[in-house]
Amino acid sequence: MASSSAGIVTGLTMAALVTIGVLGHQASVGAPAGLGPTTRATTSPAPGAAKAPRDGRHPDALPTMSGTGERVVYSVDDDRVWLVGPGNEVRRTFEVTPSTVDPTPGAYTVTSRSKLVTGSDGIPVEHVVRFAGAQGVAIGFSAAVDGSTARPDPDRPTGGIRETRADGDAMWKFATIGRQVVVVP
């Protein structure tokens, strides 16, 4: 009986470990495609923290598992955006300055746009392309009218992912209402 009970306990322990591993993996890759956005958000790393491309890939390489079709891809770990056209062709890629609130990885769509407004950090911005919301702020891409891309105050929740003015213009032309935005780790 003792060896039979030990075998059952060992089997249950292994099953629990496998389940934890699977759930941990699912949490690390975000919501599966088709489930839509979630409302959870994470905080960006401390301003000035260097980020290196993951998995030894070239920093400009489109992340695998970023979907298909025409879309905007945003990597919160790499602080980089890809504008992807037909045939999975990268039309443009560029670095961005992250907001203090990151969107959760998943699939979103552009829900609103503004030509010229004041950002959640008080800075005048143009070419605002919004696609998510979390922690009471709208999350979207924008370019400061004065061309600055300074890191935001880490103690203030902001949703503006800042681009240069040239990159903001390209985003504005590409990311119209309804365009898919895929956020990857």
From TrEMBL:
Record region (Disordered): 34-67
Domain of life: Bacteria
The protein's name in its UniProt record: Secreted protein
Source species of the chain: Streptomyces violaceorubidus
